Amino acid sequence: MKKFLSKWKLVLRVIPFLAVILAAKYAVHFSGNEFLQLNSLLGALISANVFLIGFLITGVLSDYKEAEKIPSELACSVEAIADECFIMHENGKTKNSKQCLEHMVVFLTMLMDWFQKKARTHQVMQKLFEFNHYFLKFEKDTQANFIVRMKQELQLIRKMIHRIHNIREMSFVQSGYTIVETITFVLITGLIFTKIDPYYESVFFVAFVSFFLIYMIFFLKDLDNPFGYYENDSIEEVSLKPIADARKYLQLRIESLK
């Protein structure tokens, strides 16, 4: 049931707007205030708006496709650092490696909170920086090239966190959304005051065009932030399962070391 509601959530958000539009059309029609005539220019405006929506979707999808890969890449980088720690622990049973692994679990927990906006970006970056304290201690426990590899993975994690921050805090082409919303409002208003006979056909065309345009605007805004877990009305989110699985996997392995 939850999956069904999630799938149709955008449709349910559009329905109240559609009800208001159809009520306005009914009032305008039976009061005789339909002063506009249907012509080809109206169709051209609808086509132009659809073209703009398509342009925005193309731009937003590129960010979304990139965002889909980030959780898996984050999990891989964390697991790569963890592998080096486990190797050190097996070789020398070092206390430092186990402490680093425990810090990694704390970092992943904070990272999951950060996705929900329960933690600030600077707090996550501070936890990430603290890995350097363990890397410094590792100099006497392992070879230098292993530490270099861990630092490279740490840098990749830092880059991905900054990228996520930019994607979720910055909207794609705000002026593009403005013109699409403006044209949509003008078109729907025009359709309400356009005389189309018979009346039931006018209701169908007004309802269909209004539903499509409003739905696409909501869809665009939702797609624009694939990390909107903190938003109640967000639907199109990338999965954080790789990060959650990495944390669970690390916890189980750390427990096995005791």
Structure characterization notes:
This protein is mainly alpha-helical and 258 residues long. The protein is built from ten helices and two strands; from the N terminus they run ααβααααααβαα. Strands 1-2 form a two-stranded parallel sheet. α3 runs antiparallel to α7 (144-169).
- Which bin fits the share of residues in helices? over 70%
N-to-C series of helices and strands: HHEHHHHHHEHH
Shape: rod-shaped
The secondary structure category is mainly alpha
**In which order are the strands of the major sheet placed?**
1-2
Mean pLDDT value: 86
Question: How would you summarize the topology of this molecule?
Answer:
Layout: H1 2-7, H2 9-30, E1 36-37, H3 40-92, H4 95-115, H5 121-129, H6 131-137, H7 144-169, H8 174-192, E2 194-195, H9 199-223, H10 241-257
Parallel strand pairs: 1-2
Helix pairs in contact: 2-9, 3-4, 3-7, 3-8, 3-9, 3-10, 4-5, 4-10, 8-9
Features:
258 residues; mainly alpha; two-stranded parallel ribbon
Summarize the structure.
The chain has 258 residues and is mostly helical. Helix content is 79%, strand content 2%.
